[in-house]
Amino acid sequence: MQKKTVGLLLASAGPFLWGSSGTVAQHLFDTTTISPLWLVAVRMLVSGGLLILYGFSRRLPVIAVFHDWRATVRLIVFSLFGMAGVQLTYFMAISTGNAAMAA
To answer: Fewest beta carbons less than 10 Å away: which of 34, 61, 84, 90?
Structure first.
């Protein structure tokens, strides 16, 4: 498959998956007792694990970031305040309102 076609498919899949994740989260919050904090923790752990497995399968230097303590600190700060912070506020907005208003 050509790179242009792959890029188009991935660029189309991104918004679809992002939008459907909000709708699925709203359904989970409405029908179960799952909290936004739990959902964010599971999402971050599963996605991080999948990325690490992908890196190891492609023989990429996955643990190279841990050789420099400054890079490690930056990664931890970004993970907590960047990724988890954005995810948590998004899913908390969904749990109190709905997916359309949170988006």
So the answer is: 61
**If DSSP codes are grouped into helix, strand and coil, which group holds residue 32?**
coil
CB 43 within 8 A of CB 91: no
CA dihedral over 34, 20, 43, 94, signed as positive or negative: negative
H-only helix segments in the chain: 3-31, 36-57, 69-77, 85-96, 99-102
- pLDDT digit string (tens) for 15-51? 999 889 999 999 999 999 999 999 999 999 999 999 9
List all residues 6 or more positions away from 51 whose beta carbon is below 8 Å from its beta carbon: none
The two three-digit tokens of residue 73, written as one number? 């600190």
| Residue 43 CB contacts under 8 Å (≥ 6 apart), including other chains | 87
Q: Which residue ranges make up each domain of the chain?
A: 3-102
pTM: 0.83
Q: 35 Cβ partners below 8 Å, 6+ apart?
A: 95
